Amino acid sequence: MATLREITGFFRSLPGMKDDSASGAGAVIGCNDRWVFEVQPDGAGWAVAAKVWQGDARVTVAWRFGELAELEAARTTFAEVAAAESARLSIHRLKRGKRYRVLRPFTDYYGNNAEPGVVLHFRELHYLPHDGGYTAEFAERSLYFQEEVQAQLLATFDAYFVLAD
Q: ∠137-141-146 over CA atoms, to 5°?
């Protein structure tokens, strides 16, 4: 049976997968701002779950395997999941000086509305740990996102914003 170290090494070799964290007998592997794969022991083998977004719904895709060769045989599938998840825009990936277009309407934490088609020039992002939220500073205005109240918007940020440049 493959070892946890071999498995995390395999997943870290996929596009965009840089981080891992072992906890107990399992591990999670992901990119800069999200965990993508979760690995847990499963009887005589391992279970891998990937929680991916399809539109507004989070879907769990699961695999079971025992040997590293089985993982290697599915490398293309795992690489596609890794590449798609690591490429998704998130609030953490906004780049200073870039322009972003609003794709769908939303209201920020303080009641400010954003309408589709509006282009905003990003300046900087501030995290407010005591409030559990973010202030995204754009040239045109600031937008406020609170982690608990707007968890769905933050998790599907790429459904609301797209790079306009």
A: 60
